[in-house]
Design goal:
It contains ten helices and 15 strands. With 348 residues, it is an alpha+beta fold. The protein has three domains: 2-102, DNA Primase, Chain A (Alpha-Beta Complex); 121-215, no CATH class; 223-347, Dna Topoisomerase Vi A Subunit, Chain: A, domain 2 (3-Layer(aba) Sandwich). The strands form three sheets. It has a six-stranded mixed beta sheet with strand order 10-12-11-13-14-15, sandwiched between helices. A five-stranded antiparallel beta sheet has the order 1-2-3-4-5. The longest helix is centred in the first third of the chain and has 18 residues, at 2-19. The structure holds zinc ion (ZN). Zinc ion is lined by residues 33, 35-36, 47-48, 65, 67, 70, 72.
Length: 348
Amino acid sequence: MKSKENDIGVVFDILKEYFGRYKENNKELQVRCFYCGDSRSKPNKMSLYISKEPVEPYNTYMFHCFRASCGMSGTLLELLRDTELINRPEITKDILKQLTPKFNNDALSKQVSDKPHKSVSLQKKLLSLIKNNEEYSYKLTYVQQRLQRNIIPDYILKTIVTDIRPFLPYARNEIKESLKNYLINNFVCFRTYKLNKLICRNIDHTSNFRYYNIQLNNGIDYYVTSPQLNQLSLIKKGTVILAEGIFTLLHGYDYLTKHKDLINLNSDNIILAATGGGGNATAFYNLFKFLCLNFGVIDWDIVILSDLEVSPEQYSRLRNLSVNKISVLYNAKGDFGDINIQPSLFTI
Ligand SMILES: [Zn+2]
């Protein structure tokens, strides 16, 4: 253990040398912000804080700029990439491994950290409430029909909640009494990664009341699942597939697996994620940032499934987050589940 701590010490020595001026205590290193250049009027101001201890729930070293007009944050690994300090010979593979956000396959099914964290006890409690009651299995039939699959793959199934009842007492948004039964009987839910939210879809497709979100906990959270996920490491990269809606995402992934000539899905690691609202560049930027922090997907390929006519240049700012390749698959009709669609492909 001792030697590992010393390894990270090497990183902080490099940072101090690079930035020249710094302040520090046991917990943080404070420097002028690399991203915004820091305050012009206060040349001694140091707004960028770098944690010297792994930060929960990401379980890795993080940085944050407290300058209001900047607010840039990310992992220490990202900072090393952006400053190109990552190329220094002292930064060994071992160090890089330690700087990668910790994540394993278990985490996707458990989706909670075992380490004590303020909201983890609530997450654990919420997790224990998922019981897919037979009584509501007609909701799974709806998902089968929507996905045109007889068997719902495991990676989708484990994100579905059919019995909403136990969650209602934990809802942070006020749900009218008159609405409760309607939600319980007519909505199938998809849980977000940290179970902060249930994204509920009305199974009556003739209804205009299509979506409802039940907020269970504070914090940024998204729908994330993975059909294929092997060992995540800096050496082994993969592809993240992003969409606005969950069904667009799942249909789009099916479409890509059937049209392998279209996009080469890089390696064995594939993560699917939905913004759950918002299909513009900013929504995808924030979602990808969330995936970087939680899954260490730095320098992976991104595929955006889009039904909005957003010019490909708009997505180019995702490059700021260290991306290998960005492809946008644009389908004007919006539903990747339809037959005979002809989406257009842009590479950025
Ligand atoms: Zn800054």
